Structure formats: structure tokens, C-alpha cells
């Protein structure tokens, strides 16, 4: 065995999920953060956004509205499914590069949810459309 790994079983350290975890979709734009929690089939269970958290217009674009939106969405799931929802865990999917990415992640950890998987599903253009012709002055 390599040094520093003697006597540690890394496979048993992973959380055992008996049921499929919920999926938390976090769409973080620069103007708002949209959070939707679904089951593995894609059926929406709860959703929230910076506007639902009570922030309006330009105020939705910050860290705090995203944190509150994540907290509200996770609380809705707990109300619907009870405390056992926390034990099933959550698979977090981030989309976009707004300030809400970090805020939603901190909310999941602060509320004590088990995290099954973290994934970045931000679309990346490869190739794309032909650019406009060069402007001549």
C-alpha cells in the first residue's frame, strides 16, 4: 500500500444512498438565480428564484438573493417530503457563471443536505455560427 493510506477503506467513506437523490438545478445568470429541485425523472418538486425570495429588479443579482432562493427551495422539499429528503441527498447541477453558484452551494451545505454529486452543465459553444463579415472603415 502507498504511504499514508494504510488501514483506510475509501469506499466505505462514501455516503450510502438507499434511494435516488433529488436533483437541484441552479441556473446562475448575472441578473438572477433560478433554482429548481426535481426527482430523477425530471418532475419538478420545488422551485425558487431571487424574485421569489423578495428581491426586486437589480437586487436579484447578488449573493444573498441566491442564498435565500436556495434555502426556500430546499425548505419546500422538506415540507413536501419530510426530513427523510435530506437523507436521500441531492445531486447539484450548476449552469452559468453568476454569483448565485457559490451562494446555492453554501446553502446546501449550511442546511445539512447530503451531496451525492456536483456537476457543471454550462453550455459551451464549439464551432457555432459563422461570424459576420469584417467591418471596413
UniProtKB/TrEMBL annotation:
Signal peptide: none annotated. GO terms for cellular component: ribonucleoprotein complex; ribosome. Pfam families: Ribosomal_S11 (PF00411). SUPFAM superfamilies: Translational machinery components. One of its GO terms (molecular function) is structural constituent of ribosome. The keyword Translocase does not apply. Keywords: Ribonucleoprotein, Ribosomal protein. It comes from the Eukaryota. InterPro entries: Ribosomal_uS11, Ribosomal_uS11_sf. GO terms for biological process: translation. Belongs to the universal ribosomal protein uS11 family. HAMAP family: Ribosomal_uS11 (MF_01310). PANTHER family: 40S RIBOSOMAL PROTEIN S14/30S RIBOSOMAL PROTEIN S11. This is 30S ribosomal protein S11.
Amino acid at each position: 500500500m502507498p504511504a499514508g493510506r494504510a488501514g483506510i477503506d475509501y469506499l466505505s467513506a462514501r455516503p450510502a444512498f438507499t434511494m435516488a437523490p433529488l436533483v437541484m438545478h441552479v441556473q446562475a445568470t448575472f441578473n438572477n438565480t433560478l433554482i429548481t429541485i426535481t426527482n430523477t425523472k425530471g418532475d419538478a418538486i420545488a422551485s425558487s428564484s431571487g424574485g421569489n425570495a423578495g428581491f426586486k429588479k437589480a437586487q436579484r443579482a447578488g449573493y444573498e438573493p441566491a442564498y435565500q432562493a436556495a434555502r426556500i427551495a430546499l425548505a419546500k422539499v422538506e415540507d413536501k417530503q419530510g426530513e427523510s429528503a435530506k437523507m436521500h441527498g441531492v445531486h447539484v447541477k450548476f449552469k452559468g457563471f453568476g454569483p448565485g453558484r457559490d451562494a446555492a452551494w453554501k446553502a446546501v451545505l449550511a442546511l445539512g443536505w447530503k451531496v451525492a454529486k456536483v456537476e457543471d452543465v454550462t453550455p459551451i459553444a464549439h464551432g457555432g455560427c459563422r461570424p459576420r463579415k469584417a467591418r471596413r472603415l
